[in-house]
Specification:
The protein is mostly beta strands. Helix content is about 5%, strand content about 60%. It starts with a helix and ends in a 57-residue tail after the last strand.
Length: about 550
C-alpha cells in the first residue's frame, strides 16, 4: 500500500504531539497517596482536599521531587499545591526540607516554605522562618533572617541569603555572622562556597578570635585551612601589635601574617611603630621582619628615635625585645644621629650598638674604611663599634662607648673655617647629661689637635699633643677643660706657624655630608622604590534578584 507524503507527515505530527502532550501531563503534580479526598467549594473552589490517615501522610510527587504532608489543597487547573503540617520535601539525595507549610507550583517549580523551615544538603543545613526554593534555577532564598550550619566551618547567620546549589555557593547579605569554635566573622556580605569552605568578604568585616582581631573591607578566608587574604583598609590586631597594610595575608595554623605596601605595625606596649612595604610577623616566635623603606620609630614623650635600614627585625617578648637593623642602617633624633652597617637595640637594657659587618676586602687599595659613626650636636664620633646606653626610665642618653680606633671631631666654629678639633685613641668613653656630652675619656694612645681661644674668643694657639689618656669636660657643646694624663709630647703652635700638613690626625674623615638632619634624610640614599600592584580579589557585585520580573 502506498502512502502519500502529506498523509505521512500528518501521522508523524500526531505521534509527536501525542508524545509531547503525554510528557507534559506526566510533568504535572501527581497525587501518589492520600487517606481521604474531599472537596469544599465554598472555601476552596476548584480544589481537592487531601488528608492523611492514621497510617500514612499525603504523598505528592513532581518531576523528581516528593512531598509529604498531613493535609494538602490541590488546585489541579493551576497545577498548584498548598501543603500543611509536618511538610517534608525530598529532591533525590541532594535536598531534604521540612517545614509547617509549603506552596508549590508545578508550572514555575517555585516552592515557598514557612514555619520552622529546615533545608539540608550533604554538607550544610539552612534554617529560617520562611524560604523560597526555585527548582529550575536550583536556588534557595530567605529574606527575613536565616541560619546555615556548615559541618567544618561553623554557623552562619544573616538577614538575607541565597544558596546556589549547582555551584554550592551561599551568598549572605546584611548582618552576616559566621561563628566557628576558633573565631567569629562579622560582615556586611559574605559569599561562601560550601564544598571548598571559601568565604569572600565584602564591606566592613571583622574576624575575632582569642589571639587576634582582623579588620578589612574586602577579603578572602579559607575556613577549612584557616588562611586569609585581606585588602582595603585591612588591619590585624595581634596581641600587643597592630598590623596595617594595603594587603594582608594570615595563616592561623602557623600563627603567621605578612603584609604588602604602606605597612604600619604598632607595638602598643613598647610604644614603637615600624613602617615599610613588606613585612612578616611570627606570633609564636614573637618576631617581626620588615623591608622596603623599613623604618622603626621608638615613641618618646619629648623626642622620638627613628631607625632606618634595608631590613629590620624585631624579636622577643615585650619585656625582652630586640630590634636589629642591617645594611645601610641609620638612626636619628633631634640631638643624636648615627650610621653603620648594622644597628642592634636591646630595649630592656636600653643599649644601642652600631656595628660594621665583616665584608670581603676591597680591591681598591686606597679605599677608606667606613667606620660606624655617631653625631651629637656638633660632635662626630667614629670607631670600630659604638655602644650607646640610655636610661630606660627617663628615656635620656646615659653613656657612650667607642671601641677601637675611636675618633672625636668637632668643627672650629669660632675662627678657622677649615679648622677641626680632633681627639683620637684606642677607646672613647662618654657621659651624657640632658642628652649632651659633658665628660669624655680617651683611653690609650691618645692624640689631639685643639684650637684654643681666650675669653675674648681670640685664638691663642693650636695645641697638638700625645698622651696615654685624655679627659675632657664639656658644657653647651664647648670644651671647658682638657687634661692630658701621661703626656708624651705636645706643642702649642701660633696659627701662622702651624704646619698645614699636620692639621689632620691620621685617619681623619669629616663625614658631615652623610649626617641625617631630618627623618627624610634617612631615605636619601635609598634606590627608587616601585610598589607591586595589589591583585587577587574581584570587585563587589550586588546580589542578583531571586525573583524574575514575570
Amino acid at each position: 500500500m502506498k502512502i502519500n507524503k502529506p498523509t505521512y507527515l500528518i501521522v508523524i505530527l500526531i505521534i509527536l504531539f501525542s508524545s509531547f502532550t503525554y510528557s507534559q501531563e506526566r510533568r504535572r503534580i501527581q497525587i501518589d497517596t492520600s487517606g481521604f479526598i474531599t472537596k469544599n467549594e465554598a472555601d476552596y473552589p476548584g480544589a481537592t482536599i487531601l488528608t492523611r490517615d492514621d497510617m500514612n501522610q499525603v504523598k505528592i510527587s513532581h518531576d523528581g521531587v516528593i512531598l509529604w504532608c498531613d493535609q494538602a489543597i490541590h488546585y489541579s487547573a493551576q497545577d498548584f499545591i498548598e501543603a500543611y503540617g509536618n511538610v517534608k520535601i525530598n529532591q533525590g539525595d541532594t535536598i531534604n526540607m521540612t517545614s509547617k507549610y509549603v506552596e508549590y507550583s508545578g508550572k514555575t517549580q517555585l516552592a515557598f516554605a514557612s514555619g520552622d523551615v529546615i533545608m539540608k544538603d550533604p554538607t550544610s543545613t539552612i534554617t529560617s522562618d520562611t524560604l523560597y526554593f526555585d527548582r529550575i534555577k536550583q536556588q534557595a532564598f530567605y529574606r527575613n533572617n536565616g541560619k546555615v550550619i556548615k559541618d567544618s566551618s561553623g554557623t552562619i547567620t544573616s538577614k538575607r541569603g541565597v544558596y546556589y546549589m549547582e555551584i554550592q555557593k551561599y551568598q549572605f547579605v546584611d548582618s552576616v555572622k559566621l561563628v566557628n569554635p576558633e573565631y567569629v566573622i562579622d560582615s556586611d556580605r559574605l559569599d561562601f562556597f560550601s564544598e571548598l569552605g571559601h568565604a569572600f568578604l565584602f564591606g566592613p568585616t571583622t574576624i575575632t578570635s582569642e589571639t587576634s582581631k582582623i579588620y578589612c573591607e574586602r577579603g578572602f578566608y579559607d575556613t577549612n585551612n584557616d588562611i586569609g587574604y585581606f585588602v582595603r583598609n585591612s588591619k590585624i590586631d595581634y596581641d600587643d601589635r597592630v598590623i596595617e597594610g594595603d594587603s594582608l595575608y594570615f595563616d592561623r595554623n602557623k600563627s603567621f601574617a605578612s603584609a604588602t605596601n604602606n605597612i604600619k605595625i604598632t607595638d602598643t606596649i613598647n610604644k614603637a611603630v615600624v613602617t615599610g612595604h613588606y613585612a612578616e610577623v611570627f606570633r609564636e616566635k614573637d618576631s617581626l621582619f620588615i623591608t622596603k623603606r623599613a623604618l622603626a620609630i621608638t615613641v618618646q614623650e619629648n623626642d622620638s628615635i627613628y631607625m632606618h635600614s634595608d631590613t629590620l627585625m624585631v624579636t622577643g617578648k615585650p619585656e625582652n625585645r630586640i630590634t636589629r637593623a642591617y645594611y645601610n642602617a641609620k638612626i636619628y633624633k633631634t640631638d643624636l644621629s648615627g650610621k653603620a652597617d648594622s644597628i642592634h637595640v636591646d630595649h630592656k637594657k636600653g643599649l644601642t650598638q652600631l656595628i660594621n659587618l665583616q665584608r670581603l676586602a676591597s680591591t681598591d687599595a686606597f679605599s677608606t674604611k667606613r667606620y660606624p659613626i655617631l653625631w651629637n650636636i656638633g660632635n662626630q664620633m667614629t670607631g670600630d663599634s659604638i655602644h650607646i646606653q640610655s636610661n630606660i626610665e627617663t628615656e635620656q642618653l646615659d653613656s657612650l662607648k667607642v671601641f677601637n680606633n675611636a675618633f672625636l671631631i668637632s668643627k672650629d666654629t669660632v675662627g678657622d673655617a677649615n679648622g677641626f678639633d680632633q681627639i683620637k685613641g684606642q677607646k672613647l668613653f662618654g657621659l651624657f647629661r640632658d642628652n649632651e656630652l659633658y665628660n669624655v675619656d680617651i683611653i690609650k694612645n691618645a692624640e689631639k689637635i685643639y684650637y684654643s681661644y681666650n675669653e675674648k674668643q681670640e685664638l691663642v694657639g693650636i695645641d697638638k699633643s700625645k698622651s696615654g689618656n685624655i679627659n675632657i669636660k664639656l658644657s653647651n657643646n664647648n670644651i671647658d677643660e682638657m687634661r692630658l694624663l701621661q703626656q708624651v709630647d705636645g706643642t702649642i703652635f701660633p696659627e701662622e706657624d702651624f704646619p698645614l700638613k699636620d692639621s689632620k690626625l691620621r685617619g681623619f674623615v669629616w663625614r658631615d655630608d652623610e649626617r641625617p638632619k631630618s627623618v627624610d634624610d634617612l631615605f636619601k640614599d635609598d634606590p627608587p622604590l616601585t610598589l607591586p600592584v595589589i591583585k587577587g580579589l574581584k570587585a563587589y557585585i550586588p546580589q542578583e534578584d531571586f525573583f524574575d520580573d514575570d
